[in-house]
Amino acid sequence: MSPRGGRNAVEGLVADAEGKPRVGVRVAGASEGGEANDAVEATLARWLGIRAGDVEVTEGLTTRSKVLTIDGDPVQLMRKLQALTAVKEPT
Fold first, then answer.
1. 3-state secondary structure the chain
2. Residue 7 burial (CB < 10 Å; 0-12/13-18/19+)?
3. What is the reported pLDDT for 68?
4. Higher-confidence position of 33 and 88
5. Under the phi-then-psi rule, with left for phi > 0, alpha for psi from -120 to 50, and beta for the rest, what region is 33?
6. What's the confidence (pLDDT) of residue 55?
7. What is the pLDDT of residues 36-79, one digit of tens each?
């Protein structure tokens, strides 16, 4: 997560410090008062096409690396994630 990133957007898959893939999220909100966490939840929900209330930051409330809980059908969510993060072949 990148607070004060100038805009709210999902950056797609990015590698963490250990090289593991993570979903990168950039938010315009400040990290004070939970504003950035709220923006991460809303931005990721919009990207996945689900309700904002279905996404919750459950770990990493005060760090850049977060764990989120997403309510919904796990199979449908995985399909959406795979479709949204798939590398597109040039046409």
1. CECCCCCCEEEEEEECCCCCEEEEEECCCCCHHHHHHHHHHHHHHHHHCCCHHHEEEEECCCCCCCEEEECCCHHHHHHHHHHHHCCCCCC
2. exposed
3. 95
4. 33
5. left
6. 97
7. 999 999 999 999 999 999 999 999 999 889 999 999 999 999 99
Q: Where are the domains of the chain?
A: 9-85
Q: Which residues contact 37 (CB under 8 A, 6 or more apart)?
A: 57, 61, 66
Answer whether 68's CB lies under 8 Å from 56's CB.
yes
Structure tokens at 65: 């690396």
All residues at 6 or more sequence positions from 41 whose CB lies less than 8 Å from its CB, including other chains: 52, 55, 56, 57, 68
Q: Is the pLDDT of residue 89 over 60?
A: yes
Count other Cβ atoms within 10 Å, centred on residue 49.
8
